[in-house]
């Protein structure tokens, strides 16, 4: 032992510079029961020396994430509190920051050696995705595999997290007290109004999920809907929901890549939470494909998360891309608008919904935690921990402005004049 300092005290001293802070803003409990840090700070528990090995071997927060997924680092009580404390300053704060220096990493290495903790690099938890196995980036085959990894996790798991609406995108909240289901219905209705749907309108829903928007458009607006997804499990449940609603004559759900749709033109196209999977290099082709599927005067609503600020690191080195959204690629709002407009579509409205997504994610986390045993039974404890970490981190990122989400409404030239906002408010 280093003098009279406990294991927890030595680790707290060594970990602080790795995280870019003078002193850890959390209370740290080591596997031997020793504790370091303020009594009133959020408690982080190191359950295994393996957590330190992961941090030593990995240059950034990926090591911490791997340790959390594996259960080697845990939090007692509210996960938001320690995460917020660690992201308020230092290297986990919003925005880009330099990786730990060699000297800072050597400090943790020396502490690990002194405590007899170090060894070879641990294998990543089995929940981690190895992207190189899937072939050419954003080929149709690789996109299908990436989408399956995320969305074929199990319909029961998603039911427990998303609630009865089965909508996996940002809701629109009149106020925080309306509840998740009402906020999701408000979002679905807002999209239908922005697209000017009416009886007989033909809608293509790209990335249709479990069919919630398609059902709403057909039931409430009399639209005829084609929904496409790459997820077999989503499609199976969406078809079941369509049949149960008596809307089989109005809604068709296909397992199909949007690049393969050939039965245009459509009066309207919705793309909600799907463009994040397209990839920056593929956005011009995505925009052109959707432009060509619209009739003259037809409208496209593109609802997508946006990265705020510069990107300076490889996208496939993050927790989100390795565990949650393989090959996911967030671009800034300006880049998204440029790509969409370059196809000849006219931008008619942009609505930011950043604060709404923070509320939505907090509601999903509350559902997950309230149904934890069922979620673990449905997807396994590792995957449930992945989702809890990713949704908590994302909620905080939206709250502080590191991430945004925007609805961009566009129109193919010709036909009716572009809409006025009062047309849907």
TrEMBL record:
Keywords: Lipid metabolism, Methyltransferase, S-adenosyl-L-methionine, Transferase. The keyword Ribosomal protein does not apply. InterPro entries: CFA/CMAS, CMAS, SAM-dependent_MTases_sf. Transmembrane segments: none annotated. GO terms for biological process: lipid biosynthetic process; methylation. One of its GO terms (molecular function) is methyltransferase activity. It holds the Pfam family CMAS. Belongs to the CFA/CMAS family. This is Cyclopropane-fatty-acyl-phospholipid synthase. It comes from Blastococcus haudaquaticus. The lineage of its organism: Bacteria, Bacillati, Actinomycetota, Actinomycetes, Geodermatophilales.
């Amino acid at each position: 032992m280093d003098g009279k300092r406990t294991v927890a005290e030595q680790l707290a001293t060594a970990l602080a510079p790795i995280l870019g802070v003078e002193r850890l803003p959390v209370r740290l409990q080591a596997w031997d029961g020793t504790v370091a840090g303020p009594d009133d700070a959020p408690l982080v528990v190191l359950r295994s020396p393996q957590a330190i090995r992961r941090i030593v071997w990995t240059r950034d927060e990926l090591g911490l994430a791997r340790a959390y997924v594996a259960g080697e680092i845990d939090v007692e009580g509210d996960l938001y509190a320690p995460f917020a404390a660690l992201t308020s300053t230092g290297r986990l704060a919003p925005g880009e920051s330099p990786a730990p220096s060699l000297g800072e990493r050597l400090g943790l290495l020396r502490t690990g050696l002194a405590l007899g903790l170090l060894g070879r690099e641990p294998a990543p938890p089995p929940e981690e995705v190895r992207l190189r196995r899937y072939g050419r980036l954003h080929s149709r085959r690789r996109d299908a595999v990436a989408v399956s990894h995320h969305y074929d996790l199990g319909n029961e798991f998603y039911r427990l997290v998303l609630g009865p609406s089965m909508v996996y995108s940002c809701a629109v909240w009149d106020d925080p007290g309306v509840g998740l289901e009402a906020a999701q219905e408000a979002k679905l209705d807002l999209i239908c109004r922005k697209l000017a749907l009416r009886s007989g309108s033909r809608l293509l829903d790209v990335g249709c999920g479990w069919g919630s928007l398609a059902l709403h458009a057909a039931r409430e607006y009399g639209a005829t809907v084609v929904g496409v997804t790459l997820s077999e499990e989503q499609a199976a449940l969406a078809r079941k929901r369509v049949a149960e609603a008596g809307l089989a004559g109005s809604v068709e759900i296909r397992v199909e890549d949007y690049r393969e749709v050939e039965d245009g033109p459509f009066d309207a196209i919705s793309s909600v939470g799907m463009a994040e999977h397209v990839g920056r290099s593929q956005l011009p082709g995505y925009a052109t494909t959707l432009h060509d599927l619209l009739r003259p005067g037809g409208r496209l609503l593109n609802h997508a998360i946006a990265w705020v600020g510069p990107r300076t690191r490889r996208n496939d080195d993050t927790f989100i891309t390795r565990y949650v959204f393989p090959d996911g690629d967030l671009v800034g709002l300006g880049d998204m608008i440029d790509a969409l407009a370059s196809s000849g579509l006219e931008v008619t409205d942009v609505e930011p919904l950043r604060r709404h997504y923070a509320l939505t994610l907090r509601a999903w986390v509350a559902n997950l935690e309230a149904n934890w045993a069922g979620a673990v039974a449905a997807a396994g404890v590792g995957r449930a921990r992945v989702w809890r970490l990713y949704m908590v981190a994302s909620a905080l990122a939206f709250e502080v402005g590191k991430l945004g989400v925007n609805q961009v409404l566009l129109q193919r030239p010709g036909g009716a004049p572009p809409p006025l906002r009062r047309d849907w408010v």
